[in-house]
Automatic annotation (TrEMBL), chain A:
GO terms for molecular function: TBP-class protein binding; zinc ion binding. Residues 406-415 have a biased composition (Acidic residues). This is Transcription factor IIIB 50 kDa subunit. It comes from Poecilia reticulata (Guppy). Pfam families: BRF2-like_C_cyclin_rpt (PF21886), TFIIB (PF00382). General activator of RNA polymerase III transcription. Factor exclusively required for RNA polymerase III transcription of genes with promoter elements upstream of the initiation sites. Contributes to the regulation of gene expression; functions as activator in the absence of oxidative stress. Down-regulates expression of target genes in response to oxidative stress. Overexpression protects cells against apoptosis in response to oxidative stress. GO terms for biological process: transcription preinitiation complex assembly. Residues 4-37 form the TFIIB-type domain. InterPro entries: BRF2-like_C, Cyclin-like_sf, TFIIB, TFIIB_cyclin, Znf_TFIIB. PROSITE patterns: ZF_TFIIB.
Amino acid sequence: MFAAGLKCPGCGSSNIVDDDLYCQAQLVCVDCGSVVSEGTLADDPVGGTDVSYSRTTAVTKKPCLNLIKGLERVKEMCRILRLNSEIEDLALTYFRQAYQQESFINVTLQKKEVLAGCCVYVSCRQRDWPITLGTISSLLDADPTLVGGVYQEMIKILNIQAPFVSIADVIEAHVQEYKISAQHVAKELAEDSKVLTKRAVALVELAGDSWIVTGRRPLPIMMAATYLAWQSLNPNKHRLKLSLDKFCHLAKVQKRKPAVMRITELKEVLCKLGRELPWVRETVTQDYVVRLVGDILEHRHTLLTRALRTHETAMQADCPQASALNSPTEEVAPSQCSESRDQTADASSALQLCPTDRTENQEEEDSHQTEDPEPNWGKRVLFAPPCVVHAKRRRAEPPPVQNVTGDEEISDSEIDSYIRTPQEARAFALMQKAVSSSGSGNS
Amino acid sequence: MDDLALERYFDDSIANDSSYMVEEELDLQSSLKQSHASHTNSRNSSNLLVPATAATHQNPELDVLEDSGINLDNSLHGMAAVKRQVAVDLGSKSNASPFCPMTPMTPMTPMTPVTEKSGIIPQLQNIVSTVNLGCPLDLKFIALQARNAEYNPKRFAAVIMRIREPRTTALIFSSGKMVCTGAKCEEQSRLAARKYARVVQKLGFPARFLDFKIQNMVASCDVCFPIRLEGLVLTHQQFSSYEPELFPGLIYRMVKPRIVLLIFVSGKVVLTGAKERAEIYEAFENIYPILKGFRKQ
């Protein structure tokens, strides 16, 4: 075959053929035999192969390196947390599934690590192993917000559900972290872990019943419960003197700021119950109540009933009419106490009037709602969520505009008020130019 | 459900209504069925505050039943919830007895849709709407000529314009599309959008007012009693997401109507995702009996 247009540099003839006989393509002059040009020795075109690595079979044969690393991380975390093999397998499955998804395949390595942690977390929850997201965050040494975001995304993509973890389950594991057994601290400050756990669980259950737990982060509550349990198990002067700060320092755990508020709230609840103890002569203050915690927890159901009854009579004495018009009040109802439930039933029976009266109540309610939050139902019941009792003050809402049809006339003057005059526009343009030029001058 | 629990369950529902003088031997089923009907009838006439759309959900055959004179309050919290929730959720029928949350109630009646008016009306807080002005816009020019506009192309590719009455904010894009937010009712949103269009018109663009559509409505209300979110997430697991470590409220994704509700322990409820006002009212009427079921726990 003749290659047109080429001249042999040796003899000048244009008789050049394409020689494919050998593995290297060559253009050879027929007359003198010199090689005019030759192809590259390698078969690959410049710039790599035609087929990219990600499309070759090598990808399926050898999984992605980060996937392997992620799986190893999952196994590592399961080992640290001492989880059983079932949870580990489930976590690995989830990780493999999630890793392939679009939103997790091209993310930072940190996010992939966080994903590994979230898989472990979900598996624990699904197999009834109590664990908090805070634990996972500290294991990963990652921002809890980031972990939360990845967790939400993951369960949405994998379309799985994680059953709710109650705080009473988690507290046992939480108390184990505190190093205040006899071998760590002095005798009068030491406490056996089992005893401490038992009391902390009781305190947490009480907190749950009295609306301190719902909607709040669990860790500060658990810390508050542990602290109060520790103080109350042996309320000698050493323990009572120790603040939460020093206690956390002693037990080598990191203090959480909200725990201080939770302690106050828990003590308030304990005070309300402690007042009902018949053998207590002195006034039950926040400081004094710590000594009574043991008794309060032992008889808490009875005390609850009594406290509710006292509260009812107090409310009715205050305002006999108001109790009939009040919006239905909420009382604490411990699950085993049918007596207290009858109590609350009796109390609210006054409120369950016939429909006509009910509508009156509703209208009252509605008018109350539109008014200032003055009739705060939280202040009228014995136990209410703290966010209701200390309700934020709302700024006065402007009255809702009535009868806007959407098709009204729009006055020209109103629209003109939104448009700059020519002078204004000029001045603004000059100012912008000046600002941008000075800005570029400085930088 | 063991006997003791069953007894307690009935005690509870009887104890809830003082006007219910019946002893346990009486046929609970028939009397409750009757009284529900009468209850709804009387409630319907007396409650003027509920908008017409909600009333139409009532089953017309209920009007035929006699007025028995017994007026029950909503003790069968599960009943209203059943008619609304299309979802395959047996748990929602139960009134979440503390002992066995997933036990379905013995079916009292065929599923007659009973409307339990809560008497609380969610207040609209925000309306998001979009409109097409129908012509490309020069955002730099608008930002220069309009007093109430801001434009940072490096941060966001739209002009942010605000008007005082109705107090709203608009995002105006160079394609001519506009998003209007902050209005408290549909009509106000439409009026505000028209005002923005008029401003753009005055600036010299051939702006029109095409395809005005409400995209999202947000409302809130207060049921005035605390809610056990832990209980709610247990019985309505398929719809609820409650992670106290991440967010203090429970996120309830209702299937019909497709509304997302944020339920807080204080009893405040935020409803969002609606395209029409009726959806919000319907969603709230659906959730109210469920929430009441978690009150005395």
